[in-house]
Amino acid sequence: MTQTDDTQAALSYTSYLALDEVLQAQRPRSDEHDELLFIVIHQVYELWFKQILHEAEFLQANLEAGNTAHAIRTLRRILTVLKVIVAQLDVLETMTPSQFTSFRARLDASSGFQSAQFRELEAVLGRRDERVFAHYPEGGEQRARIAAAMARPSVFDSFLKYLANSGYAVDRDRDVTRPVAPSAELQAVLLKVYQDDGGASVVAECLVDLDEGMQEWRYRHVKMVERTIGDKTGTGGSSGATYLRTTLFQPMFPDLWAVRSKL
């Protein structure tokens, strides 16, 4: 038997998926039945955030290379993952407020606001807000990843490059460290994109779907928090639902929404 055969024989479902590590990563801090569900749901969120970040990097590369079909397929995969993430809230909402309260104090300072991957995802999509650094110490890897995402072109910047390479008159000199602001000039270009009704318009619609999916996630998240703890202070001292409400209905790609009134 060759060394390759030995390696293949040694590889199993458990070892390939590192299930020993994964299934031992849930460490409840109480004996309450529902704490395991809370941990599993949030760990699965983080795995999906990791996958979306992976797909977003691939999406940007394909947009900038002008690969319309690959960009559309990647966007549709991200959208499907987002739907799964939103659907997971249905599982979390099977836990009643009293069941959550039974172990909530054990969470100490931990809070969903500390999800560095979600903050990185927001930055990849175009959010530029240094207030998010309050949860991450200077010099830390998580802060560095978020800062790096804020300093490089966002998904929307890659879309603009895609449009420019497709022959549309798009400004190539946008400061990528600044948030995307509505632009009448860009909306005129997007109107032409939709009128041409080609591959670029399909990509644009998929980006609208992505933006809507993120907004749906935010809405379902805030409603889940409201039904679980109402307006109580969130874990880790956050303002909980009060803050989350301020994030609602803020599009990542405002021009793609503004142009709709002109179509």
Question: Would you mind describing this structure in some detail?
Answer:
The protein is mostly helical and 263 residues long. Helix content is 63%, strand content 0%. It contains 13 helices and no strands. The protein has helices at residues 3-10, 13-16, 19-22, 35-64, 68-92, 97-104, 116-125, 141-151, 155-165, 184-196, 199-229, 241-246, 254-258. α4 packs parallel to α7 (116-125) and α4 runs parallel beside α9 (155-165). It is globular. The mean pLDDT is 87.
Write the layout of secondary structure elements.
Elements: H1 3-10, H2 13-16, H3 19-22, H4 35-64, H5 68-92, H6 97-104, H7 116-125, H8 141-151, H9 155-165, H10 184-196, H11 199-229, H12 241-246, H13 254-258
Helix pairs in contact: 4-5, 4-7, 4-9, 5-11, 7-8, 9-11
